[in-house]
Structures are given as structure tokens and as C-alpha cells.
Amino acid sequence: MSAADWIDLSGKNAHVTGGAKGIGAAIAEALALAGAKVAVSDVDEAGAAATAERIGGISMGLDVSDRPAVDAALEATADQLGSLDIIVNNAGVYNDLGGPVRDITDDMWRTLWSINVDGLFYCCRAAARIMIDGGKGGRIINIASTQAVSPGVGVTYDGSKAAVVQITKALALELAQHKINVNAIAPGPTWVGDEPAPPITGDVPPRTGDPLGDTIADRISRLPAGHWGSPMEQGKAAVFLASPLSDFVTGAYLPVDGGWLTL
Ligand SMILES: NC(=O)c1ccc[n+]([C@@H]2O[C@H](COP(=O)([O-])OP(=O)(O)OC[C@H]3O[C@@H](n4cnc5c(N)ncnc54)[C@H](O)[C@@H]3O)[C@@H](O)[C@H]2O)c1
After folding, report:
1. Catalytic annotation on 157?
2. Measured between alpha carbons, how far apart are the two ends of the chain, in Å?
């Protein structure tokens, strides 16, 4: 036995939603580096396939807001890989669906919540059924946001991520008896653009839809870490929550945010 065993995911099978790019792709890669076999899904089926090819996993197209499709995708993961031990519910949206409250349409609200909340719930429920029936426990990791407790990008997104946190805690309470740990990662500002991350000082362009864009930009410019986070920083946190390192951790809200929540 060595400390390396604590992060060894050999023999574990995982599913990562929204894994075509950004944080989801890095989490899928991190789990694979730790030894897990990973199924990568995304509405962007070609992107999911590219991630899977890079990390030696399998892929499938999946819109997490499509409940029957979620059930089928997670059953297919367990069938093709042999089990479902880890799920990372990463798929989420914010651009163009936020903004000042008076401008938010029913459709914007419903669309974002159907992905960030309904979709995450469908994935949690389908994974829980498979893990409970499998009888060997499991790990459910939900990607929330610092915005869940420190609002700033608008009621639609901020509210959805607060819901993710309480869903996580409620499931942790309920599923502990089945040895299923349920935790949330709260990414802070994480650069997912194709181009290199810009410096955080100076002009930080407001993101689309931010009702308080200048405020967010100002806070990013004062981020204690002094630079944007990288997707792989979130990947490392996912390995922690997927591995024996965190056997006694459940119901946690883990900020991975360069100190954002200290501001
Ligand atoms: N990047 C950040 O700074 C940051 C901060 C806090 C939280 N987050 C959260 O991290 C997660 C990933 O964000 P990201 O920055 O990597 O975003 P991203 O836009 O780079 O990637 C999101 C992925 O999710 C996929 N997706 C969108 N809708 C989907 C659906 N209905 N079903 C399946 N897949 C879908 C997209 O195709 C894309 O591949 C999200 O839940 C986001 O809210 C990101």
C-alpha cells in the first residue's frame, strides 16, 4: 500500500457529461490519467468522440435535458464498460440565457434550468439507480459554481447552481446508506477559451449575458490566485472526489476558485 493507491482509479468506470470541451473534457482526461475507463457524452457528439479518442474512452451523444436519453446513456455506459462507479455531472450552460431580470424570458429561464437542474437531476437519479442495484457504492460529482453562494451572473444561472448544491447535499444524506458519496465542485473563473488565458489585470471583457459584467470583471481582476484557473485544476478536484482520498467526504461543496470566495 502506498499513497499512490489513494488516487488509483484502475478498475473504475466513469461517465462525464458535457465532455466535448472545457472543464468536462479535462475532468474526463484527469479520471483517465488516474486509471478509470471513461464514457464521454455531450450534445456535441463529434466533440465527445474526439475527447474519448484522446483519452482511450468511449463516447456518446447526449442532451442531458432529454430524460429517456439520459436513462439510456447511463445504462449503455454500465453495459459497455461493465459498471458505473463514477458520474461527473458537468454539462451546463450560461451564455445568452442570463442578463437583467426584466429581460429574462420564460424560454431563457426554462432552457437553462432544463439543462443545469433538470438534466443534472435526471443524471443523478439514473446513476443512483444503477449504483444502488450494483451494490458496490459509487461517486456522484456535480459541477456547481461559486455563483451558487456568491451571485453575480444573473438570477437564472446563479439560482440553478444553488439548486445543484442543495440537490447534492440531499442526495448525500439519502445515498450514504448505499456507500454512494455525493459532492459538488464549485469552479471559480476557469478559462475555457481556445486561445491562451489573458492576464486578469486590466480590461477583462464582460461575458455575454452578465447583468453586472463590470462587477464580475473587477472581481476577476482581483482574484487572489492572480490568474485564471485551468480546466485541469477542476480535473484534479474531480480525481480527489472520485478516489479513496475522499472516502469520508460526502455532501461537500468544494470551491476550486483561486480564492474567489474570499473576495
Ligand atoms: N468556466 C468557468 O469559469 C465555470 C465556472 C463555474 C462553473 N462552471 C460550470 O462548469 C461546467 C462546464 O463549463 P465550461 O466552462 O467547461 O463550459 P463549456 O461551454 O466550455 O462546455 C460545456 C459543455 O457542455 C455541453 N452541453 C451544453 N448543453 C448540454 C446539454 N444539454 N447536454 C449535454 N451537454 C451539453 C456543451 O456542448 C459543452 O461541450 C458547467 O456546468 C458550468 O456551469 C464553469
Report:
1. yes
2. 41
Cβ neighbour number for residue 177 with a 10 Å cutoff: 8
Q: Which three cell numbers stand for residue 237?
A: 478536484
HSE-CB for 175 with a 13 A CA cutoff:
29
- pLDDT tens for 45-68 read 999 999 999 999 999 999 999 999
Looking only at the bridges linking them, the beta strands covering 253-256 and 58-61 are unpaired
Q: Whose CA is closest to atom 1 on ligand 1?
A: 190
12-262: CATH superfamily? NAD(P)-binding Rossmann-like Domain (3.40.50.720)
> pTM of the entire structure?
0.97
DSSP string, 127-165: HHHHHHHHTS-EEEEEE--GGGTS--S-HHHHHHHHHHH
- Kindly list the protein residues whose Cβ atom lies closer than 6 A to any atom of ligand 1: 17-18, 20-24, 42-44, 47, 62-65, 90-94, 115, 119, 143, 145, 187, 189-190, 192
The structural domains of the chain, with segments of one domain joined by +, span 12-262
